[in-house]
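Q: My labmate handed me this sequence with no annotations at all. I'd like to see what the chain might look like in three dimensions before we decide whether it's worth expressing. Could you predict it?
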Amino acid sequence: MKIAMIGTGYVGLVSGVCLSDFGHEVVCVDRDAAKVAALRSGRVPIYEPGLEEVMQRNVAAGRLAFTTETAAAVAGAEAVFIAVGTPSRRGDGHADLSYVFAAAGEIARALTGYAVVVTKSTVPVGTNRKLLEAIRAARPAAAFDVASNPEFLREGAAIDDFMRPDRVIVGVESERAREVMGQVYRPLFLRDFPVVYTGLESAEMIKYAANAFLATKITFINEIAALCEKVGADVRAVARGIGLDGRIGMKFLHAGPGYGGSCFPKDTRALARIGQEHAVPMQITETVIKVNAEIQRRMVGKILDLCGGTVNGRTVAVLGVTFKPNTDDMREAPSLTIVPALVGGGARVRVVDPEGRREGEALLPGVAWHDDPYAAATGADALVILTEWNAFRALDLARIAAVMATPRLADLRNVYSPEEARAAGFAAYTGVGR
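A: Here is what I predict for the chain of 434 residues:
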């Protein structure tokens, strides 16, 4: 099957590469000529474990290509995916759909035969129906259907998520579109991964509801963590105790500095906005957004308390600034609130992150970048663990404590226990919910 993928951002590139690995003929389109040239040369512009290898394998096999020409990619394609950005619009929090409708216009002009136009981008409920109307208005005689196929890719584990999904959601309204989408995902269906067919609006809502629920779960355990600190409970024990209940589950019950990234902040704001527009306030989601921002500010307070109430003139080493491990993504990362607050408070901040420097240098001015956590900690007055990269999970704490000017540890991911920190020579320790 020939497939066109419009957009080579995170979702588009991962989806296009994986679909080509299914055996489909995939052409990925991007307006950025320099980006397309890099992809053609085998270089991936994002950090995602395993992606470059799979991409190069399928390019070599002739199943995957990159172009700046939408018309060439769409001609003869049976499925055309829209995987462009839908960032939060300034002022109202709604998803900016300008890129989506621009892509739909290009597709309408390029259609040469029947195709299913598949929305992979996260879009507000009702968008796919508007896309159908827009394409039909531009090309009244064109043969096409529209499908909603939201993505559920975790950064750092995207290849596995695409190849071994919990489920694939497909919103369609015609049997012909369903058959095409069935062929797209046939390799998954044959291996008994669930492919769930719904209407367009239900598929759109599933994406927002899933992300809002996960963001709520994270925020809930962070609120519980704050209470644990006051009453003498350990949030890790609490999380395990409730997570072993099959109705709750262990995932997303890890206390920390709040959620970030490209999806949860944007999608919770968009869902709240959709609710307001339909006079059905999403009160839980709105509260989650508010509390998550408060949690990040509370982390700054914990670091200040650890340092005696001020970081002015002190050296603080921060380990990890990406929003999660195994990605270079800095979008809405808690570090973008916490690190500037430390710098603004007069601290000399040193940063270590295995993949975050490329984006982080522009986003975090006034910090010094180091490659080695031990070098960053030398002479420091406090060490902050902000992202739980594997490289920070087995540190020689005694060695770090020995080289610090004042051995203080703010473990905002609960990687190490208070007992481990004290035994290693840290004079002060703070975690989350302990």
